[in-house]
Inverse folding.
């Protein structure tokens, strides 16, 4: 009896209390198939939002909150490192040449791009199936760019 009641509560959409606008969060069974990638996350799904509503969803808890904020904070840290390194004039003190410096700066930029592409995917994937596919491509390109930055920096120590 208790188990049946728990499953019935999961199927109901959850509406967070936001005074400016009510944005509805859905259970796993109530969202379209293209958003059903993890059956272990049962509630908190966003669906059919506009860009403005997606940006508003940054301030309330949903199934993408940790993905968005961890990458956003990480991108912010790397932006800080990037400008700190430019201000100091060199990325790390033990590099002998300026080409090493530019490779490290390129790596930092590639990580920033990778994280911001991931933020955009996790933030805007709930708009429509087309937006999901387009932002997934952007996310994968960002991952590729991050790998390229890692590879180029790794080449510094091989030579």
């Amino acid at each position: 009896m208790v188990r049946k009641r728990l499953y019935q509560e999961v199927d109901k959409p959850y509406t967070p209390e936001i005074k400016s606008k009510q944005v509805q969060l859905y259970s796993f069974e109530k969202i379209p198939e293209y958003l059903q990638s993890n059956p272990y996350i049962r509630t908190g799904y966003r669906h059919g939002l506009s860009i403005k509503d997606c940006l508003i969803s940054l301030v309330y808890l949903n199934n993408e909150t940790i993905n968005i904020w961890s990458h956003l904070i990480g991108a912010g840290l790397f932006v800080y490192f990037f400008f700190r390194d430019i201000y100091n004039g060199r990325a790390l003190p033990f590099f002998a040449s300026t080409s090493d410096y530019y490779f490290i700066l390129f790596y930092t930029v590639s990580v920033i791009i990778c994280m911001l592409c991931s933020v955009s995917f996790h933030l805007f994937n709930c708009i429509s199936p087309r937006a999901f596919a387009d932002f997934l491509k952007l996310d994968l390109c960002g991952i590729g760019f991050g790998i390229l930055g890692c590879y180029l920096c790794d080449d510094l120590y091989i030579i």
User: Anything to note?
Assistant: DSSP finds five helices and no strands in the chain. The CA atoms of residues 32 and 128 lie 10 Å apart. The chain has two domains: 7-63, 64-159. The radius of gyration is 20 Å.
